[in-house]
Amino acid sequence: MKLTKKFLALVASIIAASVPVASGLSPTTQQTWTLRALVTELEENHYVDRRYNDAMSAEHLETYLERLDPSHLYFTASDVAEFERYSTRLDDLGRQGELSPAFEIFERYELRASERLVHVISNMEDIVAGLDFDKDEYIDSDPTERAWAADKAELDDRWRKRIKNQVLALKLAEKPLEDIPTTLVKRYENQQNRLSQYNEQDVFAVYANALTSQFDPHTSYFSPRRAENFDIDMRLSLEGIGAVLQNEDEYVKVVRVVPAGPADKQSDLKAAELIIAVGQGRAGPMTDVIGWRLDDVVDLVRGKKGTVVRLDVIPAAGRADEARRLTITRNEVQLEEQAAQSKIIEINDLSSTPRKIGVIDIPAFYLDFDAYRKGDPDFRSTTRDVAKLVNELNEAGVDGLVIDLRGNGGGSLREANELTGLFIEYGPTVQIRGTGSRVWRDGKRRRGPYYDGPVAIMIDRLSASASEIFAGALQDYGRAIVVGDRSFGKGTVQTLLDLPEGQLKITESKFYRISGDSTQHRGVIPDISYPSLLQHDEIGESSLDKALDWDRIAPVRHKDYGVVDAILPTLVAKHTERANSDPDFQYIWDQKALAAKVRDAEVLPLNEAERIAQRTSQEIQYLAIENTRRQAKGMDALASLDDLVDGDNDSSDMPQDSAEEPSVISEESEADEVDALITETARILADAINLSGPVMARADSR
């Protein structure tokens, strides 16, 4: 069974060892009551009516084992077989608040990890000295997909290859060979220390979240410590670098870069990248954070405004020898920096009428809640800011509007509804169904003025939640042409429930479009698709295990404003003709194809010469892709990837081994790519205006 990596925040660092177990961890009385309450709340209040039965018990057990040992480095098949006696019993025991299986299994895990890492740390010098880098052998690219080891001998071999891969990665990153054993010992000692700090609360949280994840990936248990830090991602975005992080196996993964935050403005940090080291200031040592707990890594990343943090990151499918260093000055994300902004693009196609297209970039659906609650008549919000921009663009004589929602992860549901109201006369914008099939609607309840000109909306895989509600509503009304990549697909709503100890974040309702289609899982599908470097199997709701399915309910009667369906085939044909001859579009397609080829490799070579040859080959391919684009645009070709200079990042103190993912894109290339997509969207809208008239509207009702 494929297991979600979403909720590894409390256990990902437990992949190492400690001294042999003598902690005698056992559940508390409060945890007994909490487990009973948790089971009751899940069965009675979750959006999906699921029972914690024998079948779910088996899945709960499997998930718990996978979360303790995601890379299958400690448990053997015989350990797992022994625990199978609980396979159909956890549900019955859970209703009684019985936690002995959780602590018994954890104790076995802790013992296995302790024995393994004591051996590795004690013998690291000899292990490294005995490695043969001329031997032809391979290691699994994704160790989470392999079976449990048959016996200790197979585990020994996995560990030999694991350390060999780590040594090779450090060698290729130009780490002195004599320093490598010390580096690895320190890494494993850090993990050892963190394991020794685990307590009853941590064990319970891992076990409880293994259960909640059977209902959906957004339902989770918060321990008292985690509940106090529930807003950690928001505080991170406001006080640190502006990135939402989570654990994935032994790494800390970037889930989302907050628009207009320090990381967004100062670096090219990307969603799905992995943080492997953190350093303070512009110089000094880097702290290896592989295997660390999420909250400990966040503590290193966050800091006072104006201070500097350095991050070593690798691609999602990468290795440590591909690391690059980012230097970011911590700052607050000001509301003004996330505010909508506008510009005008002039489309001068000799075959048609020249058009002026306004572009409004909306990084987030924001609302100054404090000012709004206090009754401040000048409170800031997305809708208010966009309304002003629309008026300014109208006064400038634009022929249509492009609304750019790429990277917009959502925000205020109120603002999604209010903003939709700027583009329709009246009507519903979203349907919400709770438990018991009760459906209620939100929208623009009274007729009012609205912008009735042509509209195109840009979305990508990171457009989520409120962005999907807005884009889906305008698509359903026929008010906008939607272009880009399929959106994230988060169409559920969560609420917090108090438990005897901690809290439960539980999915209680689901969003539906006025067409009756859910935004869940499937997201918003664009009318015209663009290529994207964001991988659907790494980012988005459909990449999460046990994500709720897409479905539909009855549509809502609403006005049809548009003629999009009638002209869409022509728009697609014109777009395809342009894209096929556009070097920036071809650049994205080529990058995507090469990245997919690298990512889909099931094994990595542990032969040093083969590894170097593989990396060199990929560098040559990336360079060829870059130079093809440059030559088509009349630019000078590059001699090597080293000529791709990111002026915003202090990278001089770290080798740039970025041959296997599109992280080698230069600022110049990335800017051209972004401009190409915006310009093409403006051209599509200009085509639509020329085909159907400047208003692109009619008033059929249905």
Task: Write the topology of this structure.
Layout: H1 29-45, H2 54-68, H3 77-83, H4 90-95, H5 100-122, H6 124-129, E1 138-140, H7 152-172, H8 180-196, H9 200-212, E2 220-222, H10 224-228, H11 232-239, E3 243-248, E4 251-257, H12 262-266, E5 274-280, E6 286-288, H13 294-301, E7 308-314, E8 324-329, E9 341-347, E10 355-361, H14 369-373, H15 382-395, E11 400-404, H16 413-421, E12 427-434, E13 439-444, E14 455-459, H17 466-476, E15 481-484, E16 492-498, E17 503-512, E18 528-529, E19 559-560, H18 564-580, H19 583-599, E20 603-605, H20 608-632, H21 667-692, E21 700-701
Parallel strand pairs: 10-11, 11-14, 14-15, 15-18
Antiparallel strand pairs: 1-20, 2-17, 3-4, 4-5, 5-6, 5-7, 7-8, 9-10, 12-13, 12-17, 16-17, 19-21
Word description of this protein:
By secondary structure, this protein is α+β, with helices and mostly antiparallel strands. It has three domains: 29-217, no CATH class; 231-329, Pdz3 Domain (Roll), CATH 2.30.42; 335-558, 2-enoyl-CoA Hydratase, Chain A, domain 1, CATH 3.90.226. Helices cover 39% and strands 16% of the residues. The chain contains 21 helices and 21 strands. The strands form five sheets. Strands 3, 4, 5, 6, 7 and 8 form a six-stranded antiparallel beta sheet that branches. It has a six-stranded mixed beta sheet with strand order 9-10-11-14-15-18, sandwiched between helices. Strands 2, 12, 13, 16 and 17 form a five-stranded antiparallel beta sheet that branches. A hairpin with a 5-residue loop joins strand 5 (274-280) and strand 6. Helix 15 packs parallel to helix 16. The longest helix has 26 residues, at 667-692. 44% of the residues are buried. Residues 1-22, 231-238, 646-668 and 697-702 have low confidence and may be disordered.
